[in-house]
Every structure is written in structure tokens, then in C-alpha cells.
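thought: user wants a sequence for this fold. calling inverse folding tool.
action: design(structure=
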């Protein structure tokens, strides 16, 4: 579904990504793991059209979308749940969800997608008129995921979905991602919580200093001594 090849990204003179390549199979979960500053968010933002690559190819269903504006990439079917949730704090829960349904590809699907979001997150239906900024961190993460789903994406990139959440809420969020995947949604999971993300992933890539240094199935990387020592404290 998604194929990234030899991606270079710079911020001024500083190189954030160097020759990054990875693949996402339709219906799979791919984890991108690494420490702070490894380039994970830069990678997600580049695929989403928020950063422009200096070199490389980003193919979605065979179409090279490298350098496309983000609104075109969203409408093609690539959704993003951004790091830090980034809900619209002064808008209601319902208004936030409506913002997600504004894409041309989502027109005519609002009712179906809203029903899907409420089935996943019943609390959002209860809080429909509540201002998003007054929600708890976990509820805001649910809203961020729900808003993304309102755009009817085929692939969703989750950027640090567990960041700042209590352990019990983290498990709920990751359980939701697994459930969405079982329903057919293709997922890219960018996480500092290496153990949990590798347990979920069909395939995983380790990013260090802007480069892919290891790749394999989630299970293989969980057993890799380099991963265990560097990220799992074992």
C-alpha cells in the first residue's frame, strides 16, 4: 500500500532523515520505533505532506506523492493522528468530529463514520457538546483518533499515541488500534513504547539518527539483543 524509498529530509543544514526506506502492506500494522530525536515524527510529517523531502520516493497505491500538499494526501486516504493529540480546544467534541469529515472523500459518509466512532468511543457521544479542551488526556486522544476516522482513511499514521497517558489508558488506545486493524484499517504506529508497539506490529523498523538500522517482524525485533539492550532495558 505504501512504499517509501531513499528518503532524505533536511531542516536547513541539519539532516533529519537519511536514505530511509520502508514498506507498509495493506491490512498490516507497521511500527516505527526509536528514541527521542531519531526522526520518527519527521518521517510521519513527510509522508503526510507537512515536510518536503530533498530526495526519495513515497508511493501510495503506486502513485508517487512525495512533495504533495497535505490536503491532497489526506484526501487520497492517508490519515494522521498527530503527536500531542492537537484537538481544537475551543470547539466542541461534535465540531471537532465534523472538521474531520470535511474532506471530499468523506462526503456522504459522515453518518456511517460517526456511528463507527461512537461504537469505538461511546464516551464521545456523551460529551458531544462538551468543549474539547476540557476533556481528559485519554478522552482527547479518543477524539483525535475519532476525528481522523471521520475522514474515511485507508491508512492511519499514529504518532506517539501513548504520550502523556496513564498506563491503563495506553492499553485502551493500543487495543483500539488493534481493533481498527482487525476491521481492515492499515496502520503505521510511531511509538517510544517499544515493547507494546512491537507486540502489535506485523513488521517493524528501528530508526536511529534519521536512519533505519534494523528491520524485521515485531516478534523478531522483540527477541533481538540490540533492541532489548537499547530500548527494553534487558
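)
observation: tool returned 234 residues.
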Amino acid at each position: 500500500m505504501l512504499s517509501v524509498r531513499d528518503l532524505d529530509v533536511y531542516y536547513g543544514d541539519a539532516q533529519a532523515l537519511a536514505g530511509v526506506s520502508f514498506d507498509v502492506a495493506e491490512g498490516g500494522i507497521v511500527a516505527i520505533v526509536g528514541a527521542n530525536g531519531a526522526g520518527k515524527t519527521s518521517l510521519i510529517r513527510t509522508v503526510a505532506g507537512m515536510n518536503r523531502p530533498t530526495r526519495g520516493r513515497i508511493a501510495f497505491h503506486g502513485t508517487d506523492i512525495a512533495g504533495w500538499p497535505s490536503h491532497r494526501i489526506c484526501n487520497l486516504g492517508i490519515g494522521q493522528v498527530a503527536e500531542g493529540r492537537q484537538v481544537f480546544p475551543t470547539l466542541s467534541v461534535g465540531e471537532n468530529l465534523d472538521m474531520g469529515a470535511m474532506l471530499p472523500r468523506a462526503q456522504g459518509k459522515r453518518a456511517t463514520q460517526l456511528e463507527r466512532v461512537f461504537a469505538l468511543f461511546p464516551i464521545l457521544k456523551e460529551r458531544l457538546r462538551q468543549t474539547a479542551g476540557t476533556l481528559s488526556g485519554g478522552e482527547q486522544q479518543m477524539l483525535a483518533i475519532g476525528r481522523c476516522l471521520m475522514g474515511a482513511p485507508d491508512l492511519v499514521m499514529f504518532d506517539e499515541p501513548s504520550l502523556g497517558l496513564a498506563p491503563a489508558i495506553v492499553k485502551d488506545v493500543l487495543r483500539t488500534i488493534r481493533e481498527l486493524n482487525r476491521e481492515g484499517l492499515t496502520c503505521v504506529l510511531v511509538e517510544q513504547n517499544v515493547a507494546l508497539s512491537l507486540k502489535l506490529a506485523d513488521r517493524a523498523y528501528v530508526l536511529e539518527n534519521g536512519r533505519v538500522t534494523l528491520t524485521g517482524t515485531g516478534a523478531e525485533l522483540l527477541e533481538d539483543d540490540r533492541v532489548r539492550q537499547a530500548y527494553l532495558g534487558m
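thought: summarizing for user.
answer: Here is the designed sequence. The first strand starts at residue 2 and ends at 11.
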